[in-house]
Predict the 3D structure of the following.
Amino acid sequence: MAGAALSGPGNGATNGATSGATSGAAAAHDDDERPRPRASGDAPRDTPSDLDTGAPSVSVLWIAPGRCEPIDAGSTVPAAERGYAWIDAHYESPRAWVETVERLTGVTVLDEHLSDAENATHPSYFDSTRDYEMIVFRGLAIRPGPGPDPEEPIRIRTRPTVFFLFPRCVVSVRPADSRQVPALRQRLLDAARFKQRLPSRPEELMLRILNGMVDRYLDLRQPVTDQLEYWQRELLDPRRPFRDWMSLLEARRQLRKLENLSEEQLDALQEWRDERLDRHGGHDDPTRDWTDATDDAHTGAGDGEPAMPALTDALEVRVNDLVEHIERVRGHAQRLETSIESAVQLHFSATAHRTNQIMRTLTVLTATFMPLTLITGIFGMNFEVMPGVHSPAGFWWTMAAMGAIALGLVLFFRTRRYLEETGLRGGSKRVRRRRS
């Protein structure tokens, strides 16, 4: 059986940190990754009719120049044939794909990496051995879209897809209800009929899948932006006070979560790229578009060379494009988080401004009625003889004097702009008057 394998047997020591060291990082992902009843603000999940329930738990495609065809999971491929295998498996079926990988590649996957592939809370991560590489990449578990209730924050739920890269094989371990990978599989099967280009290397196939996963994060930007604009309008509405602070804090927490997810994805991709460049001294071979299993230097069998091939210029461009997309997602999350913090600060500034306006009005009223209160107190004294007390016109003269004093003070305050209309509502009224 070893003669029919696609690469030489034997495992080397891991080059990076062991996967067991990532268990603490996986614990950092909270209970949001676990199944729970859908809230009204969640984006719609995949419905049961969308699920890939009829597909087997392990499927194998052989991709060669000009053709892509399914092969049986228990079959072997001649070592001299050009091309590579794509093994697609579900992590709901524990280790059902391991025997197929060992039969096709002759390589045994470490138990630590198998445990990582079964961990649904594992963060985005990269690790490698001499014979293969493992990349964990978390993708959205929901289809992005506006929720029915704008007051309910959009909760970002993710789940991992695990890739194992061999010189002539790529393994994808994904959720059974994922629709992106089955759609890509069907496109590859129909590529010859529609004269479409097939991915020439396992790395290119993996990057195609990752690009689709990142595009879903890009699609999430618009609904999240719309919801934060709703929160900003609620915060700055002068007609009613804002009280839904818990939902606002939850929305901010989801933005921080999206930012952390993007940083983990960037770290995994950059570590994988740097690992390839370090192994080959930054050089590539553009002639190796399609894997040649008879080349010992390519398989790393018996000559001490690295088993994994170098990245071509085309793959470097794809990796850089994927990294740029992830950075766009992270930058957008950072901008939205900054915007919501600015809106909160503006809300408190507007609240303080309205409080100052109210205190200014109360101060003007107090200053206006203070001399009137003084006059009332003087004429309320119990003296036997007081000017104007027994006069028939004394009351009217007093009222006229008090009215004149009050009017004079109001005009004085108006002249000094103590009564100027400067509130948010007053500013909007002035804008409407100018437009009319």
The chain has twelve helices and seven strands. The CA atoms of residues 388 and 394 lie 5 Å apart. The radius of gyration is 35 Å.
